C-alpha cells in the first residue's frame, strides 16, 4: 500500500478526489496525512475523511530554509512513500526536495513545459493559444521543470475566463493525479528511473 502525504495551500479539490478514490478497498494507496502552509480550506477534507493533518505556516519562520526544516520534520513523522503537492503555492526548499526526490509529485494546470509558474491558466489565456492542458510532474529544484509523468491537452473555448478554464483543467488534473498514483503503486512508473 503506497503511503501518501498531500501538501496543500487552498481548497484541496485534487486532495478530495484522492481521498474519495482511496475509499475503495482496491485502491492501492492511502493518504496518511495532509499538510498545509497556512490554514487552508482543504484541511476540512482531511477532517471529513478522518485523516490527520498538520499546518506549518510559512509566515511563522524567519526564512524559507527554516520553514523547510519544520516541514521536513513533519513529513518524516508520517513516513510517506510519495509526497503529493496538490495546490501547494510555495516552492519546496532544497532540503525537502533532496530528502524525498524523486518521490515528490505535483499537479500543474498547463501542458508543461508551456506556462510554468503560479499563473499557468492566466498565462495561457493571455498568450491567446488554442489549447493548454494539465500535467503531473516529479518535483525538482526548478519551477515546474521536473520530469513529466502524465499530461493531457485541454482546448480553450471562446469566452473562457480564467475561472471557467481552470475548472475544466482541475477535472483533468484529478484524473491524471489518480492515474499517476495508480501507476506508482502498481510499479507502472518506477521512481528509481528518475533518481
From TrEMBL:
Q: Short name of one Pfam family for this protein?
A: Formyl_trans_N
Q: Which UniProt keywords apply?
A: Purine biosynthesis, Transferase
Keyword hit for Transferase: yes
Specify the enzyme's EC class, one word: transferase
Name the Enzyme Commission number(s) assigned to this protein: 2.1.2.2
Q: Where is the Formyl transferase N-terminal domain?
A: 3-181
Cite the annotated pathway: Purine metabolism; IMP biosynthesis via de novo pathway; N(2)-formyl-N(1)-(5-phospho-D-ribosyl)glycinamide from N(1)-(5-phospho-D-ribosyl)glycinamide (10-formyl THF route): step 1/1
Q: Which GO terms describe its cellular component?
A: cytosol
Where (6R)-10-formyltetrahydrofolate binds, per the record, is at 64, 89-92, 106
Catalysed reaction per UniProt? N(1)-(5-phospho-beta-D-ribosyl)glycinamide + (6R)-10-formyltetrahydrofolate = N(2)-formyl-N(1)-(5-phospho-beta-D-ribosyl)glycinamide + (6S)-5,6,7,8-tetrahydrofolate + H(+)
Catalytic residue list = 108 (proton donor)
Q: Where is this site: Raises pKa of active site His?
A: 144
Instruction: Tell me a Gene Ontology molecular-function term this record carries.
Output: phosphoribosylglycinamide formyltransferase activity
For binding N(1)-(5-phospho-beta-D-ribosyl)glycinamide, which residues are annotated in this chain's numbering?
12-14
Q: Which GO terms describe its biological process?
A: 'de novo' IMP biosynthetic process
Q: Which family does it belong to?
A: Belongs to the GART family.
What task does this protein carry out?
Answer: Catalyzes the transfer of a formyl group from 10-formyltetrahydrofolate to 5-phospho-ribosyl-glycinamide (GAR), producing 5-phospho-ribosyl-N-formylglycinamide (FGAR) and tetrahydrofolate.
Q: What is this protein called?
A: Phosphoribosylglycinamide formyltransferase
Species of origin reads Protaetiibacter larvae
Q: Which gene encodes it?
A: purN
